[in-house]
Q: What sequence folds into this?
C-alpha cells in the first residue's frame, strides 16, 4: 500500500474509533433518538454505515460479484436504503453495534490490502482506492455527526477534516450535475482554518470568488449537515454563493439538507 493511501486508511480507522466511543456510551433508548436528518434515528445512521462499509469491503475484494449484486438490486427495487434500515430496526442496539464494529473493521482490513493502482466499483463510476476510502471517511464523519447532534455527545473535530474538505471542493461539478445543471467556468478559492489552526487553501488559489472560514463549518455545509446561514462562513462572489447553496460532497440524489435556523452558529474565535 502506498504511503498516501496508508495515511487515509489510518485516518478512517481513527474516525471509526471516535464514533465507536460515542456509540459505546449510548443507552438502549438513545439508539431510537431522531437525528437532524428527517425520518432517520441514531439506529438508522449506524445501520447505513454498517451496510455500506460491508458493501465497500465486497467491492474491494470481489469486483465482479459486487457489480452483479448491484445489477440484481436494480432489477428488484433499486432502493439502496431499505435493506440496511430494515435490518437495523429489527434487532437490539447491541446487535447493531456488533454489526457496525464488524463491518468497519473488515473495511479497514480490505483497504489495507487493496491495490493502490487499481479501480474500485461503486454505485456510480469506478473510483481510485484513495478516493474510495476518502469517501468512506467522509461518510463515517458525516453520519457520525448526525448521531452526535442527536444525542449531544462530545466528538471534537480533528484535522482529519482535510479529507472531507477535499471531497467537498472536488465535488463542486457533481453538485450541479446531480441537479441537472452545468457548473459555471468561474473558479473558486476555499480558504479554511483547520481544527489545529493550520490554513488550508483548496481550489484555485488565484480565484476572486472565495469561501472562507473554519473547516468545521465548511465540511458541515458540504455534507449538508448545516445550512450555510447557520455558520460563520464568508462567501464572496456570485459563483461561490451559488455553489455553497447546493454543495454536496456525497453521492446520490440531491438531499434536503438542513433548514436555516436549525442550528446556532458557533461563536467566532
A:
Amino acid at each position: 500500500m502506498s504511503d498516501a493511501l496508508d495515511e487515509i486508511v489510518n485516518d478512517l480507522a481513527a474516525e471509526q474509533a471516535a464514533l465507536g466511543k460515542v456509540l459505546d456510551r449510548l443507552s438502549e433508548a438513545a439508539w431510537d433518538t431522531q437525528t437532524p436528518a428527517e425520518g432517520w434515528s441514531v439506529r438508522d445512521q449506524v445501520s447505513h454505515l454498517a451496510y455500506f462499509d460491508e458493501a465497500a469491503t465486497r467491492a474491494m475484494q470481489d469486483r465482479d460479484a459486487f457489480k452483479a449484486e448491484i445489477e440484481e438490486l436494480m432489477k428488484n427495487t433499486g432502493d439502496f436504503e431499505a435493506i440496511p434500515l430494515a435490518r437495523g430496526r429489527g434487532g437490539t442496539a447491541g446487535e447493531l453495534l456488533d454489526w457496525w464494529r464488524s463491518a468497519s473493521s473488515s473495511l479497514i482490513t480490505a483497504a489495507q490490502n487493496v491495490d493502490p493502482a487499481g479501480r474500485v466499483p461503486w454505485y456510480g463510476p469506478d473510483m481510485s482506492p484513495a478516493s474510495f476510502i476518502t469517501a468512506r471517511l467522509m461518510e463515517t464523519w458525516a453520519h457520525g455527526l448526525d448521531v452526535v447532534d442527536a444525542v449531544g455527545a462530545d466528538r471534537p473535530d480533528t484535522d482529519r477534516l482535510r479529507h472531507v474538505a477535499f471531497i467537498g471542493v472536488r465535488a463542486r461539478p457533481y453538485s450541479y450535475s446531480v441537479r441537472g445543471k452545468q457548473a459555471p467556468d468561474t473558479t473558486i478559492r476555499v480558504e479554511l482554518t483547520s481544527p489545529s489552526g493550520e490554513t488550508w487553501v483548496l481550489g484555485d488559489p488565484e480565484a476572486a470568488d472565495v469561501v472562507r472560514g473554519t473547516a468545521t463549518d465548511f465540511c458541515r455545509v458540504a455534507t449538508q449537515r448545516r445550512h450555510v446561514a447557520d455558520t460563520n462562513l464568508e462567501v464572496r462572489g456570485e459563483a461561490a454563493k451559488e455553489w455553497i447553496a447546493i454543495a454536496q460532497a456525497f453521492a446520490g440524489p440531491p438531499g434536503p439538507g438542513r433548514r436555516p435556523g436549525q442550528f446556532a452558529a458557533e461563536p467566532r474565535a
About this structure: The chain is about 50% helix and 5% strand. The beta strands are 188-193, 199-203, 209-214, 234-236.
